Amino acid sequence: MFKTHLLIAWRNLRKKRVFALINILGLALGFACGILIFLFVNHHLQFDNFHNNEDRIYRVVTEERRDDVEYESAVPPGFAKAFQSDYDFAEEVASYYYREDWQIDGADEKNSKRFREDIAFSESSFFRIFDFPLVDQLSGRTLEEPNTAYITQSFATKMFGEQNPLGQNFILENQETIEVIGILKDLPANSMISTPIFISYPSIKAYDDFIYSGSWGGINGSLRCFTLLHPNQDIAHIEQTLIELVNKHRPRSKNVHRYKLQALSDIHFDNRYDGINVSLLWIFGLVGIFLIGVACINFINISTAQAFTRSKEIGIKKVLGSNKKHLFWQFISETFIISLFGMLVGLFITLLVLPSFNSLFELDLSLQSLLDIKVAGLVLTLLTFVSLFAGSYPGILLARILPTLALKGKLTQRDAGGQFTRKILVTAQFVISILLIVGTVVIGKQINYAVNADLGFDKDAIVMLSVPEDIEHIKLEGLKERIFQLPGVENVTACLASPGAGYNNWGTSLRYNNRPEYEEFSISAKMADDDYISTFDLQLVAGRNFRMSDSITEVVVNEKLAQKLGLGSPEELIGKQLELNGGFIKATVSGVIANFHDQNFHLDISPVFIAPQTNAFHEIAVKINDQNVKSTLNEIEQKWRQVFPKFIYEFSFLDERVQDQYEEEQRLLSLSKLFSGLAIFISCLGLYGLISFFVAQRTKEVGIRKVLGSGVSGILILFAKDFCKLILIAGAIATPIAWFFMKRWLENYTYHTEISWWVFVMSISGLLLITLITISYQTIKAATANPTKSLRSE
Q1: Structure pTM?
Q2: Which of 707, 728, 679, 706 is nearest to 781 (CA)?
Q3: Domain coordinates of the chain in residue numbers?
Q4: CA 219 to CA 130: how far, in whole Å?
Q5: Residue 195 — φ and ψ, nearest 5°?
Q6: Quick one: which of 693, 696, 745 has its CA closest to 298?
Q7: DSSP letter assigned to residue 336
Q8: How many other CB atoms are found less than 10 A from the CB of residue 21?
């Protein structure tokens, strides 16, 4: 029986190829999006789930409680040792200090390779907490020895080629020679740890005195503490006990720490501590369901609309003995065949777009990902769901047609049923399309606002050059002077980081004008020379720039500091004494600059001070003119290489850095454009199929109207008015929903655009226009046809 159903279904689909292709293409696009979204969501849901003791692995994080609570995924350098020695909560505790883009050089003449790589300084206990298996190791050697390292297999091949990497050396940051004592299996893609080089923790002494000292005076955002707890520990009790460490090591600090244990399974999904926003996964999942739903709606609409043309077929089958059950399963069989073809085409589309999808989200999904058992389960589930969901209603509707009306030719569209349901489903398609269009417009508007708004500093035509750390100030000044003499250069400054850089944010304590206590809030440090203000066009509103000296005696601050201190005007700050960084800096305020956005638009503007601490300069900012940019960049590189011949030259444009801070939003915008475009396209496919069917059914009516004097515009209005009404109804439904959710999304930003009324008008109008274009071809074709052909049989 099932074979017969499939055979009849195949014959029916061949007769109506156009409608079958419309359904197949719509379902294929929906399936392709659904599979890609599933791969994306599944990738994130599996983060760090491969460790044997994952339920006992925790990261220690810090809540910094000042006037506001700030969340830091790091701890003070002294925390790990104290946690391990003072308490018996854990089997293992490990410090992990990562650094990005450090220079790696071959250690001898045979290996002249030079490149940048992410590295980490880690204690040997780190590998007893996490399951990153060693493939090979030098006997008797451990990471407790200074200047030793474990490296991954991929890095070993990259660095040493076909040679045995064990016992080989490389040079780190042109300073220390590091010996390879172990080879790790390549780290999984779904791991929060991605560094390919793990250097012994004692080696940190040569690079960072603050971390090595075990200080409690502050936090470096790159330092992590991981622990493997004993079984059955009470997390709340441990966190309460850790208050003792705060009272012992930070008793008088206004920056009150609360150390929290973050479960390994929560790390990837907690956006307070650099994790992803889990709501994004829900949004993607819902969009995938919506797109598959839109494709199913197309099938239901076209199938129910065709009920009238299939009435005689159904009537004859009922007369010959078919019951509702047989007819129902015949239509389910037709749906299954269409769904099967749609799934096969969808899988092919998925393979085609997978490289672009990987590039957009920096993933490494492959054909093997599609062969995963979970993907196979998804495919079978979607096939079953779509076949039943999309086929059930048309099957029930068509199976209940009365054979007497069908065989006498007296069946009308009203008798066939489904008109009201079709209107509801088409309206649902339009609602989904409008929601996605509004979301795309609002996200794009916010990104444009953030990137192009007045940030309070000049970001155009400024080139940022990385310079080696701990370089003598005289070398830096010499490089500045050489670059400034180039004809295409307007200004040069050395600094810790640019304004609004989004990295190297150094927050520290502040005592104002010899007040008895430090302030409740922190102040952000922008270490730079006296050309910083002019290079970035920061605006002085009071006083003057600071003077360069061997020690910090003067600083420039921003207006925000006056506001946080409750002063009446910025001028009141001039000449006042500031004690900064726990008393290591004592200086006078020489000037006040206008506020600028020192962080992205998610966060409020911070109080800022700018001071000339030369040993903290990590970059040079070069303001160039727009004449001969390429030659100017080449000349800058030549000057840089003359001063730092052993280091890799890197530069970036500041405006691109600002834009990179909204990378997640840019990805969301790209996906919103794609999803809204697909939703509209799939909906238009359905509309095209419906209008083609309706035009064919009403050919004689069109002919009569033409004979009675109706023009092309009148015929177009005849077919378009119902769809336009449905779009307006959909707009009325979608507008408050879109406004609510986009308003919630914009609340993630301290500085954001507004949702203007024209966003909704434009979205609805755009959908109206696309709909009219979609239905115009078939409608105009019918309206311009010779009426004698359609009326010939009368």
Answers
A1: 0.85
A2: 706
A3: 1-47+280-417, 54-267, 433-454+660-794, 469-646
A4: 24
A5: -70, 135
A6: 693
A7: H
A8: 15
